[in-house]
Amino acid sequence: QRALGQGGALAGRHILVTAGPTHEPIDPVRYIANRSSGKQGFAIAGALAALGARVTLVAGPVTLPTPPGVTRIDVETARQMAAAVDAALPADAAVMVAAVADWHVDAAGQKIKKQADGAPPALALTENPDILAGLAANPRRPALVVGFAAETEKVVEHATAKRARKGADWIVANDVSGDVMGGANNSVHIVTANGVESWPDLPKEAVAMRLAERIAAALGS
Ligand code: CTP
Ligand code: CA
After folding, report:
1. Would you call 186 a catalytic residue per the annotation?
2. What is the pLDDT of residue 139?
3. CA angle at 130 for the pair 52 and 21, rounded to the nearest 5°
4. In the Enzyme Commission scheme, what number(s) does this protein have (predicted)?
């Protein structure tokens, strides 16, 4: 059998993908997290590999099989994800699909017990590193940095602001006001320096393949 993607449009390229949620422990038995199935990120990793790229997929906790030809690094927290992304450099492109938790908790070493007086524990939240912004500002920045933005309203407006704020080349803006989370389809807008391109509602695999082809064209292979 022919090696996956051999001689494809992304042959010889190394592409980094983050996917899934992160889990931030509260104590040994509890965590806070974002809602994310990992489906879109895993589909993108698979599509890039199918075009011949060497793909490093840094994955938060999800129950999905690793796409063929993809090197997967499993992490739990945002801080672990940031370290794994850094360790995977250099890369020609990065696609940050992960739904990274914005905060972590100073985790308790033992299970937090309910108090007799019913007083809830006070969770002190600390902001996590912004992995996308950090990568975009990194001296070893990939030539193409793609972020995602899940928005429930003013989708393009928020994504355009996010693109500038984080220093990403493209933001794939995702309208999550419907049933995108865990669903099979995705409707996205690609926000670049040249404006906004709106794609029809497509299966996540089709979004992945279109994005992989667009990345191949941008890298000029
Ligand atoms: N992201 C990241 N590290 C973080 C938070 C977000 O790398 N700590 C990345 C995501 O993977 C995604 C992009 O940044 O590619 C946008 O994430 P989003 O949560 O929409 O952005 P935030 O800046 O956290 O804005 P918001 O307040 O809307 O959550
Ligand atoms: Ca966020």
Report:
1. no
2. 97
3. 65
4. 4.1.1.36, 6.3.2.5
Q: Which of 130, 135, 155, 190 to mutate to test the pocket of ligand 1 (most atoms within 8 A of CB)?
A: 130
What is the token pair recorded at 54?
């060497």
Q: What is the 3 state secondary structure string of 84-128? A: HHHHHCCCCEEEECCECCCEEECCCCCCCCCCCCCCCCCCCEEEC
Token code pair at residue 102: 């914005």
Q: Give yes or no for residue 5 having a pLDDT over 60.
A: no
pLDDT by residue (tens digit) across 37-81?
Answer: 999 999 999 999 999 999 999 999 999 999 999 999 999 999 999
d(CA 193, ligand 1 centre) in Å: 19
ipTM summary value: 0.98
> Burial, 120: exposed, middle or buried (Cβ in 10 Å; 0-12, 13-18, 19+)?
exposed
Helices vs. strands in the chain: H and E counts, helices first: 5, 14
Active-site position among 34, 128, 174, 186 = 34
Write the residue with the smallest CA distance to atom 21 of ligand 1. Answer: 149
Task: Return phi, psi of residue 142, to 5°.
Answer: -60, 155
For residue 130, the CA-to-ligand 1 centroid distance in Å is: 7
* Interstrand relation of 70-74 and 54-59 (parallel, antiparallel or unpaired): parallel
Residue 146 neighbours by CB distance under 10 Å: 26
pLDDT at residue 2 greater than cutoff 50: no
* 129 marked ligand binding residue: yes
